[in-house]
């Protein structure tokens, strides 16, 4: 798992570079060469079943070639975020579309079906016994879903079992209106939880991000995600991940030793979907975890992270909720330096500027701080090794009545080449037993016509906004690893 800078990696980087130039012939030749396996071996000949889902032709289409692209596939990507209430950013600073607004807009686009993969549901104040006006956007979302069910739009929900929120009535309300809900017993199946958070709407629009189906995710927690509209190729691929949960949520389901062929994918790290998003040449793929939920061709989440880190030549900026180069839930705990090593290697071997922004809130395990200080201590600017760690503290302010909120929950990483948006905390368990998904997108600014900033540029600006804000503090500052209470 530790293969980061070995020859196969270089070979793949070479492949990508060639693809950027649009030299499809050479790429095709390289494709024939045995590439290292992703979750399973790639089987280029076997097409996924289903009509519009065939992706491999598009995957190898030269950039700029519109031929063969379905007219309905004019993908459009929008970054979305939640900023906790009363956390003012500097005026004029960059921002993404507010998540609450973006979700309602996405539901407005729904005509047939909505599939939701979720950790838990808690969309109303009473669900957790809190009376606070900031629960209103969550309640509006629940109402909207109920209205869509009344309009015969189907809703299928896969969610983790046992549920975290026993008091929540959300799913019962939706089932009474006709929603289908399956509880996926991840603890029994893989020893983890279903931690994925995404939507597939009409098999053509998607949302993916850090936000739980929780009203606090809309007003009290910092979240980041992406919505991609009008992109059936990607949507049908994400739907295959949804289907893995759906079948595991059926009564008496067992983890298949090998997933049936119709779950396999051709869209992955080696063959990302290639197309134009709003006219901008784009590659994109999804990763998944744990490995047992990766059918043939699906890139593992950990592998995607390592590939994005390994590809960086200028900077790696990552925002995560927690960072442990160890296991978290297994006993006895084990050291697990995979991501830590990748960051240090990038900084040391390639002079990549590494910045890690980790969340800090009253529930933070203080044993994270020695690990963060160790990473920070690796920095040696004189020798050209630049590694910086800060913690992000959301002031509780007058919101102390709301439990488990006021925290940065986003999980993303950005380099000069790619944006990664995921759902996993950064410690071993999230990649070995917990189910998660990641989206890796890379855009190339078209030289010719004016276009907005690429997705990685947009994400870099959001990261720098947070990094430079007063809520991000260095390890020698006020966050001495004790309680992460805001004293500003
Ligand atoms: C999706 O594409 C249709 C046309 O095919 C267009 O009318 C619609 O506005 C697009 N939706 C978004 C959100 O871009
Ligand atoms: C759930 O409901 C029970 C009984 O009403 C209550 O005692 C408990 O505090 C509630 N739990 C939460 C998390 O709101
Ligand atoms: C919630 O709080 C508001 C005012 O803060 C109050 O008017 C209302 O009665 C409360 N609702 C419940 C169910 O306690
Ligand atoms: C919803 O579907 C049912 C059965 O398919 C049908 O009887 C009903 O009229 C439909 N309602 C609407 C609003 O389309
Ligand atoms: C594959 O086929 C099986 C059986 O028809 C079905 O239950 C499953 O949902 C399909 N999987 C996908 C990803 O479509
Ligand atoms: C909470 O604090 C914010 C700013 O810190 C203020 O605008 C708001 O009015 C306060 N709300 C209450 C109910 O005190
Ligand atoms: C992710 O990390 C946070 C912070 O330590 C922790 O509270 C949370 O339980 C983790 N997520 C899951 C799904 O376990
Ligand atoms: C409101 C909310 O989403 N809180 C969550 C913050 O993140 C931790 C870890 O994922 C969850 O346990 C909380 O429920």
UniProtKB/TrEMBL annotation:
Pfam families: PLDc, PLDc_3. Residues 190-217, 404-430 form the PLD phosphodiesterase domain. The gene is PLD4. One of its GO terms (molecular function) is single-stranded DNA 5'-3' DNA exonuclease activity. Signal peptide: none annotated. PANTHER family: 5'-3' EXONUCLEASE PLD4 (PTHR10185:SF8), PHOSPHOLIPASE D - RELATED (PTHR10185). This is spleen exonuclease. Its main location: other. The keyword Ribonucleoprotein does not apply. SMART domains: PLDc. It catalyses: a 5'-end 5'-phospho-2'-deoxyribonucleotide in single-stranded DNA + H2O = a 5'-end 5'-dephospho-2'-deoxyribonucleotide in single-stranded DNA + phosphate; Exonucleolytic cleavage in the 5'- to 3'-direction to yield nucleoside 3'-phosphates; an (R,S)-glycero-3-phospho-(3'-acyl-1'-glycerol) + a 1-acyl-sn-glycerol = a 3-acyl-sn-glycero-1-phospho-(3'-acyl-1'-sn-glycerol) + glycerol; a 5'-end 5'-dephospho-ribonucleotidyl-ribonucleotide-RNA + H2O = a ribonucleoside 3'-phosphate + a 5'-end dephospho-ribonucleoside-RNA + H(+). It is an enzyme of class 3 (hydrolase). Belongs to the phospholipase D family. Residues 42-71 are annotated as: Disordered. GO terms for cellular component: early endosome; endoplasmic reticulum membrane; Golgi membrane; lysosome; nucleus; phagocytic vesicle; trans-Golgi network membrane.
């Amino acid at each position: 798992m530790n293969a980061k800078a070995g020859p196969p990696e270089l070979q793949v980087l070479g492949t990508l570079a060639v693809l950027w130039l649009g030299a499809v012939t050479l790429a095709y030749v390289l494709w024939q060469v045995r590439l290292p396996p992703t979750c399973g071996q790639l089987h280029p000949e076997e097409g996924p079943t289903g009509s519009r889902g065939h992706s491999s032709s598009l995957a190898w289409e030269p950039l700029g070639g519109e031929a063969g692209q379905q007219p309905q596939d004019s993908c459009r990507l929008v970054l979305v975020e939640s900023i906790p209430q009363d956390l003012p950013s500097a005026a004029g600073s960059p921002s993404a579309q507010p998540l609450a607004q973006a979700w309602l807009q996405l539901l407005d686009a729904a005509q047939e079906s909505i599939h939701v993969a979720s950790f838990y549901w808690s969309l109303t104040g009473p669900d957790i016994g809190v009376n606070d006006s900031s629960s209103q956007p969550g309640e509006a979302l629940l109402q909207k879903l109920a209205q869509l069910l009344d309009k015969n739009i189907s809703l299928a929900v896969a969610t983790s079992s046992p549920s975290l929120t026993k008091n929540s009535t959300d799913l019962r309300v939706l089932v009474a209106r006709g929603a289908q809900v399956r509880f996926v017993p991840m603890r029994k199946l893989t020893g983890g939880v279903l931690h994925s958070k995404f939507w597939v709407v009409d098999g053509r629009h998607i949302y993916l991000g850090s936000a739980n189906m929780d009203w606090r995710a809309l007003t009290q927690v910092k979240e980041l995600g992406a919505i991609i509209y009008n992109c059936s190729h990607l949507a049908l691929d994400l739907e295959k991940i949804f289907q893995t949960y759906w079948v595991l949520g059926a009564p008496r389901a067992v983890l298949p030793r090998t997933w049936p062929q119709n779950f396999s994918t051709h869209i992955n790290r080696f063959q990302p979907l290639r197309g134009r998003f709003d006219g901008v040449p784009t590659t994109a793929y999804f990763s998944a975890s744990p490995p047992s939920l990766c059918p043939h061709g699906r890139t593992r989440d950990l592998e995607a992270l390592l590939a994005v880190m390994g590809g960086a030549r200028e900077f790696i900026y990552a925002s995560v909720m927690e960072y442990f180069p160890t296991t978290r839930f297994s006993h006895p705990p084990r050291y697990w330096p995979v991501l830590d090593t990748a960051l240090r290697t990038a900084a040391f071997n390639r002079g990549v500027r590494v910045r890690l922004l980790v969340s800090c809130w009253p529930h933070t395990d203080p044993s994270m701080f020695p690990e963060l200080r160790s990473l920070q201590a690796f920095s040696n600017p004189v020798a050209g090794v630049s590694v910086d760690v800060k913690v992000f503290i959301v002031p509780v302010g007058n919101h102390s009545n709301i439990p488990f909120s006021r925290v940065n929950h986003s999980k993303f990483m950005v380099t000069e080449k790619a944006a990664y948006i995921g759902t996993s905390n950064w410690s071993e368990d999230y990649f070995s037993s917990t189910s998660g998904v990641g989206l890796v997108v890379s855009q190339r600014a078209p030289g010719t016509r004016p276009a907005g900033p690429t997705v990685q540029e947009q994400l870099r600006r959001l990261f720098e906004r947070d990094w430079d804000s007063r809520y991000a503090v260095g390890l020698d500052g006020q966050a001495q690893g004790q309680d992460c209470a805001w004293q500003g």
